[in-house]
Specification:
There is one protein chain. The protein has 264 residues and is of the alpha/beta class. It folds into two domains: 166 residues, Rossmann fold (3-Layer(aba) Sandwich), CATH 3.40.50; 88 residues, 2-Layer Sandwich (SIR2/SIRT2 'Small Domain'), CATH 3.30.1600.10. Helices cover 44% and strands 17% of the residues. The protein contains twelve helices and nine strands. The strands form two sheets. Strands 3-2-1-7-8-9 form a six-stranded parallel sheet, with helices on both faces. Strands 5-4-6 form a three-stranded antiparallel sheet. Strand 2, helix 7 and strand 3 form a beta-alpha-beta unit. Helix 1 packs across helix 12 and helix 10 runs parallel beside helix 11. The longest helix has 23 residues. It is elongated and about 60 Å long. The two termini are 32 Å apart. The chain binds 2'-O-acetyl adenosine-5-diphosphoribose and zinc ion. Zinc ion binds next to loops.
């Protein structure tokens, strides 16, 4: 091991120990996650060199104007994403967060992801700020459908035509939040209340630049709580993080869990 690499390794170890100590002494822990937590599951992130918004223009796909203009294109994109995501499995980071909830350490996972992988991993108290890609809703009436539960996912992906509401025949849309749209009110209010109560937030794999979601760690900090951040790169949250661990979510969370189990 060269001197520089050894030094980096030492810093990583120190940060990891700090994180474990914080986790063990905090009383109300929440997690706040973004696309990076699912990267090791093979779900592409949005920003960065191979991000989705590098290959596709967000305003042509993820806005209500785009959907009005060209619903075929928008549905083609969402059917492709649904297909990629449904083949993905939760990784060690998702499982670690579900374990921490079962152990009574984590009270809630607040996610910006629409991929359902926290639920698949077993997290119960999950707040989805940007919706869920496996849910669809009617553009005219109150019809909502969770395709994994209704058993229509295969059929839905196999079709090429525009999906219609079984109740009123209007166009269905993905139940996700598009740019310029408000976040689901209940989800956001609950998330803010949790952030005010939390004495620690684990921020995993988010660039922390999309608001209002990015307020969550800021609220924790402003109300006296601490921030542990895990990310392969520095993010918008890093300047206010108490502990920043550079690394892949799944790898870092497995190491943290190993140490944490030894400590408690
Ligand atoms: P981004 O794509 O903006 O950021 C992903 C973050 O994950 C980056 O900071 C990466 O450095 C980090 N990352 C990548 N791989 C990682 C790994 N293996 N382990 C840990 N970190 C890793 O995704 P979000 O922050 O989630 O909004 O984006 C926020 C919102 O912008 C999304 O919810 C979506 C998007 O447009 C809507 O769709 C409304
Ligand atoms: Zn309808």
């Amino acid at each position: 091991m060269s001197g520089r690499i050894f030094k980096q390794y030492r810093v990583l170890k120190i940060m990891m120990n700090e994180a474990v100590k914080l986790l063990a002494r905090s009383r109300f822990v929440i997690a706040f996650t973004g696309a990076g937590v699912s990267a090791e599951s093979g779900v592409p992130t949005f920003r960065g060199s191979s991000g989705i918004w590098k290959r596709h223009r967000a305003e042509e796909l993820a806005t209500s104007e785009a959907f009005r203009k060209d619903p075929h294109l928008v549905w083609e994109f969402y059917r492709w994403r649904m297909d990629v995501i449904r083949k993905a499995k939760p990784n060690k980071a998702h499982y670690a967060l579900a374990d921490l909830e079962r152990m009574g350490v984590i009270r809630a996972v607040i996610t910006q992801n629409v991929d359902d992988l926290h639920r698949e991993a077993g997290t119960k108290n999950l707040i989805e700020l940007h919706g869920n890609i496996f849910r669809v809703r009617c553009t005219a009436c109150s019809h909502r459908e969770y395709l994994k539960e209704s058993g229509r996912l295969d059929e839905f992906l196999a079709e090429k035509y525009l999906p219609r509401c079984p109740d009123c025949g209007s166009l269905l849309r993905p139940d996700v939040v598009w740019f310029g749209e408000p976040l689901p009110r209940n989800a956001l209010e609950n998330a803010f209340v949790l952030a005010e109560r939390a004495d620690l937030v684990l921020v995993i794999g988010t660039s922390g630049v999309v608001y209002p979601a990015a307020y969550i760690p800021r609220i924790v900090k402003e109300t006296g709580g601490k921030i542990i951040e895990i990310n392969t790169e520095e993010s918008g949250i890093t300047p206010i993080a108490d502990v920043f661990i550079r690394g892949k979510a799944g790898e870092v969370m497995s190491e943290i869990m190993e140490e944490f189990r030894r400590l408690i």
